[in-house]
Amino acid sequence: MKNLKEQIILWLRKQVKEAKAKGLIIGLSGGIDSSVVGVLAKEAVGNKVLGLILPCHTAKKELEDVRLVVEKFKIKNKVIALTSVYDLLIKLLPRGDHLAQGNLKPRLRMLTLYYFANKLNYLVVGTGNKTELMVGYFTKYGDGGVDLLPLGNLYKSEVRKLAEDLCIPKKVIYKTPTAGLWEGQTDEGEMGISYPELDKILAGLEKGESRMNLWDKKVGKIKLMVKKSKHKRGLPKIFYQ
């Protein structure tokens, strides 16, 4: 994992140089993915990284975990509370379901990240991993709207190993993953499958393993998730005459 760590750090530096940017910006949530990316970004550009902590009806324990990471690794950070803005939008908009309302949060966070990115000439670093990207478990033009995805080719299990190598606090590494879209929401609960199972199925599908039971209900479900979320992984389609 040490070699992987160094490769990502060098890659981040290269992206900053090629874009003629001055640094990197990241939204820190207190989760394993954002913590790993935050630490790698700090290693890559030092004090030219800014971690934005963007609470929006965020659980107290999540904010405690963010502070644990930024203090341990001395990541420059700023808190911008978005709860009041979110509440105002909910009042202005027609009533929506959990998903419609929940997806407003990552989209509010991303517009805030890009405000600072434009102001500072920084690149926005996303926290999405390969597992989530393949099944579309991210918000389009929310946490999916970024400039760089350093973990985009790593399964969740690989991110966990990298987090251990980086000495991310165990409390952060092994807690139940959640996007915080609504109270009590968890990644695995929403997707209906555990990350280890999901990684195993996705890796098998990617390799075209013949021994995989393609008629298994979980395999079929994951194949459908990959297919249905294809539009989230590409640029908008353009009509040509």
Task: Provide a brief overview of the structure.
Helices cover about 55% and strands about 5% of the residues. It has about 240 residues and is of the alpha/beta class. About 35% of the residues are buried.
Describe this structure in words.
The chain has 241 residues and is an alpha/beta fold. It has one domain: 3-Layer(aba) Sandwich (Rossmann fold). It has a four-stranded parallel beta sheet with strand order 3-2-1-4, with helices on both faces. Strand 2, helix 3 and strand 3 form a beta-alpha-beta unit. The radius of gyration is 18 Å and the shape is globular. It starts with a helix and ends in a 13-residue tail after the last helix.
Helix fraction, binned, reads: 40-55%
What would you say the CATH architecture is?
3-Layer(aba) Sandwich
Domains counted in the coordinates: how many?
1
Arithmetic mean pLDDT = 93
State the main characteristics.
single chain; 241 residues; alpha/beta; Rossmann fold; four-stranded parallel sheet; 12 helices
